[in-house]
Specification:
Elements (H helix, E strand, L loop, with lengths): L10 E6 L19 E11 L2 E9 L5 E8 L4 H18 L4 E6 L2 H7 L8 H13 L2
Parallel strand pairs: 2-5
Antiparallel strand pairs: 1-5, 2-3, 3-4
Helix pairs in contact: 1-3
């Protein structure tokens, strides 16, 4: 029996990387294309291990792809690790805004502050994301 891949929706979120702002869904005004990066992330975990993948389109148009394997982290932790790795890369490449495309509604809503983080293991990721904002 062939299994069809589960369809997921990407959720677009503007994440600001400027000192004056905090995470938000929509920028106050449209940023310049030269300041915007687009980040696609995914994390996964199963009995054989965990990993993350990301594709970052930096403001110059260059595509950067990364994947990392982890021995033992949860699926949500892998999703967070992907977002953090992507934000670090975006900063390194001069982005001031990031459009985050993530298939985890939980992660997107926790990052934007719409959902409270109840699991203590995930709170460190929220702190790390906010440290990345200059």
């Amino acid at each position: 029996m062939r299994r069809r891949p589960k369809e997921t929706k990407s959720i677009l979120v503007f994440v600001t990387l400027t000192r004056q702002s905090r995470l938000r869904r929509v920028p106050p005004s449209l940023p310049s294309v030269s300041e915007v990066a687009v980040l696609y992330t995914d994390g996964a975990s199963n009995a054989l291990g965990s990993g993350l993948g990301l594709v970052l389109k930096v403001p110059t148009g260059k595509l950067i792809r990364q994947s990392v394997r982890y021995p033992e982290i949860t699926n949500n932790e892998a999703e967070y690790e992907a977002v953090i790795a992507g934000l670090k890369l975006a900063l390194k490449h001069g982005a001031r805004w990031v459009i985050l495309c993530c298939d985890s509604q939980l992660i997107v809503n926790q990052v934007t502050g719409n959902f409270q983080i109840k699991e203590q293991r995930l709170q460190k990721y929220q702190i790390e994301i906010h440290k990345l904002l200059p």
